[in-house]
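Write out this protein's structure.
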Amino acid sequence: MKRFLALFCALFMISSFAFADDDAEINTNDDIDQEQPEEESPETIESKTSIQMNEAGDQYIKVGLMVTCPLNFGGSFPFYRDAKLQIGGAGMLGYHRFITSWWALGVDIYFGYHPTIGENIFTYIPFVINTTIQPTFWRLEFPITVGVGAAMENYLSRTYFPGLVLKAQGGVFFRATPSWSFGIEGDYMYLPQWYDDSKYNDYGLFGSLALSARYHF
């Protein structure tokens, strides 16, 4: 009986040491696995090294305030041959969507006004469909835009609609955050008026300087 108990104790101690060694080896392997970082996929590495500010499907809403200068100060626009426009202002609201990372389509609506020497007010509301090409560098964006549309023009009690609108615009924006960019823009607008009697035909040329903000989403 004593020999049996001694043999049982010896086997129990040998088994305990064997299991302890296995557990230690397993824990060591687990620690090694935890210390080794996971390998990043090529797509993840590429996304970290080539981040673009804009991608196809991105959109933005733009608002701006403008100082607008009539370029043909000769005085024949808008409806009276002896009228002369003075420097005025305009506000703008637009929506744009990127088709590619550098090309966007959008619409802008403006509300502008100009006093005349006779202390009257000429107002115009252009609705413009436009296309924008936008090169980027670092956090700077350089939108170049051309557009065509129609405008409602009013002076005293007379309204001219629809009036053709042609616009060209360029600017520089700083992407302050992923959602907001701020910039300055200059644009040129051609606003003609055509009548059945061609002697009444007229046109307006306007240059504007705008401070703008864009919300990207």
